[in-house]
Amino acid sequence: MEWYYPFIVLAKVVIVLIGVSLAAYINVYFFRKELGRMQSRMGPNRVGPEGLLQSLADAVKMLIKEDTIPADSDRLLFKIGPALLIIPIFVAFAVVPFSNDWSFGQTVLHPVISNTNVGLLIVLALTSMGVYGVVMGGWASNNKYGMMGSLRASAQMISYEVTLGLSVIGVVMLAHSLNLGDIVEGQASGTFATWYIVRQFPAFIIFFAGIMAESARPPFDLPEAESELVAGYHVEYSGARFFIYQTAEWSAMLLWVCVAVILFFGGWLPPFGALSFIPGWLWFIAKCYALIFTIIWVGATWPRIRYDELMTLNWKVFLPIGIANFFIVAAWKTIAASLGVGV
Amino acid sequence: MAKVPVAPMIDGLKVTFDNLFRPPTTIQFPEERRPEQARERGMPVLRSFPDTGECRCVACGLCEVVCPGHCLEVHAQPEGGDRRVRILEAYILDASHCLFCGYCAAACPVEAVVMSDIQDMAGFSRRNMIFDLQQLMELGRRFEPTYQATKGAVEFRLPDPDTESGRLLENKPLDLSEGPVERPTPVAVPVRSKSV
Question: Which end of chain B has fewer CB atoms surrounding its CB within 10 Å, N or C?
Answer without folding.
Answer: C
